[in-house]
Design a protein that fits this description.
Blueprint (H helix, E strand, L loop, with lengths): L18 H20 L18 H17 L13 H5 L10
């Protein structure tokens, strides 16, 4: 997405590094890259993140499908974004419906 990111994340050890710290690291790293690419400085990301706790498989499936449909809702061309699902999940059939033939 040109102005936001969707991800399904589960920390390997939530007590060692909380989710907020993981997302903060992503924001810091990517903001540095984005600013270098643009030749700019300053804030890139909003302070707030919008997170959800996924409580069961049905909710996980809906979240994956929402993420997969999001670029189309923004009228992005297929070569303007990338979608990725953990290979182990894809082997179990957990992928974007838009990729199914």
């Amino acid at each position: 997405m040109p102005n936001h990111v969707h991800a399904v994340v589960r920390p390997l050890d939530g007590s060692a590094k909380p989710l907020e710290a993981i997302v903060g690291g992503w924001k810091q790293f990517s903001a540095g890259r984005i600013n270098r690419e643009r030749g700019s400085r300053g804030e890139v990301w909003q302070d707030e993140t919008f997170d959800r706790i996924i409580r069961d498989e049905e909710h996980l499936w809906r979240a994956i499908q929402y993420i997969g449909r999001n670029p189309g809702k923004a009228n992005l061309a297929p070569d303007a974004y990338s979608l990725w699902v953990r290979p182990e999940w894809e082997a179990l059939g957990w992928t974007f419906e838009s990729r199914r033939s």
